[in-house]
Amino acid sequence: MIPQLNRQHDTHIQHTIEMKTKPQGALGKLETLAHQLVTILSQGMERSQLESERPDIVRPQMLIFAGDHGIAGEGVSIAPSEVTAQMVANFATGGAAINVLCAQLGWQLSVIDCGILTPPAPELNVVSQRLGNITRPLHLEPALSEAQLDQGLALGQEAVKPALASGTNLFALGEMGIGNTTAAAAIFSALSGLTSAETVGRGTGVSNEVVEKKQQLIEQALRLHREALHDPREVLRRLGGFEICQMVGAMLEIARAQKIVLVDGFIATAAAMLAYRIAPACKDYMVFAHCSGEQGHQAMLNWLNVEPLLNLNMRLGEGTGAALALPLCQSALAFYYQMASFEAAAVTQVVEPS
């Protein structure tokens, strides 16, 4: 069970923000972010503790979940499924964009094999949480079995427990899996009722013909599974992926522990939608890092009624957008704790006319 976010300090937190030496609202989304972060980080604290302990971000953890998709065999991506394993090796040896950003910004990074065609070599130190080699094609049958669904959710929960035990209070989840934009678009259509024409984009840059094929396959999948799509667990089982399943489990566990999860792009937001439908209270612990360049992502964010921190036209995945949001989180807390109040700075507070 995920605890409801206790908002006992809401009035105090907002007053603290408004009394900083600036016009009200002048720091824009940074103020909203500060309020959300301080609220989450102060769970279980008395107001005096909030003032004295000043809870901050500790050991931020990036987890990349990788899995292969049976739908990729239908030619829905510019790359074959073998590229998933190649990119996992690239993550493990430090050569990908996410490695560069994590090293620059101070993230701890772990890579998790949720089920890819070629298991990584042992010396790569990739965490093995395999549910199989590849999902079944979602337009022909459920992508995961019931056993894989249950095991995947449990493994996702287990994936975050070592970091939680070490004191981590902010997580980001990245992903890798050829074909997973098709799975994410199918999930979005199933949850929102939007057509595949509204949810399918170009992924990593496919042609118009491939976009049309993706749309047709998703419509076929939605027709095949329509009787079960009222249940978010069945949406995940029938249309998801090994990595998406474990991301959902991880998000639910992070929220259960009342910590922060930075949500990345299109695939991560599909996982967030499922987690929200399974346990609505988890949304309060989510910070949406950026709006992807992938068609449909803004509509996902609208469906969730959230605003992203960044819009950089990125559509890479891997957790890159979430990684870039870490300095904004740190800056939001820095201004909240360190910026002087009007009273402390002996600055006259100017109240804007109503």
UniProtKB/TrEMBL annotation:
Transmembrane spans: none
Domain of life of the source: Bacteria
Molecular function GO terms recorded: nicotinate-nucleotide-dimethylbenzimidazole phosphoribosyltransferase activity
Record keywords, A-Z: Cobalamin biosynthesis, Glycosyltransferase, Transferase
Family: Belongs to the CobT family.
Name of the protein in its database record: Nicotinate-nucleotide--dimethylbenzimidazole phosphoribosyltransferase
Gene expressing this chain: cobT
Annotated pathway: Nucleoside biosynthesis; alpha-ribazole biosynthesis; alpha-ribazole from 5,6-dimethylbenzimidazole: step 1/2
Residues annotated as catalytic: 318 (proton acceptor)
Pfam families: DBI_PRT (PF02277)
Taxonomic classification: Bacteria, Pseudomonadati, Pseudomonadota, Gammaproteobacteria, Alteromonadales
Natural source organism: Pseudoalteromonas rubra
Catalytic activity: 5,6-dimethylbenzimidazole + nicotinate beta-D-ribonucleotide = alpha-ribazole 5'-phosphate + nicotinate + H(+)
Keyword Lyase attributed: no
EC number: 2.4.2.21
GO process terms (BP): cobalamin biosynthetic process
Enzyme class: transferase
